[in-house]
């Protein structure tokens, strides 16, 4: 954890993201995780927590690979993948 947040920047290594993009992607992940904790707490604890975090990170990274850098779009897209 970094400053109370779990860093996901190691997942970005080797993917060609510049420091500004990494900052946006990290902020998107943090915002999405906070939303899950608030709105979908059953996915944020127990055995589903790690799977949920990985799904959020993968969604954000996949969107970033296509060029998306809008924070809210990254968050919304990641959360959309979790909701039925």
Largest sheet: none
Mean pLDDT, nearest integer? 86
Distance between the termini: 29 Å
Q: Helix- and strand-based class?
A: mainly alpha
Helix content: 55-70%
Order of helices and strands: HHH
Spatial extent as radius of gyration: 12 Å
Oligomeric form: single chain
Uncertain spans: 1-5
What is the tally of helical segments? 3
Q: How does this model look, in words?
A:
Helix content is 58%, strand content 0%. By secondary structure, the chain is an all-alpha fold. It has a domain at 24-80.
Name the features.
elongated, 3 helices, 84 residues, mainly alpha
How do you describe this structure in short?
With 84 residues, the chain is mainly alpha-helical.
Topology of helices and strands:
Blueprint: H1 19-39, H2 48-65, H3 71-80
Helix pairs in contact: 1-2, 1-3, 2-3
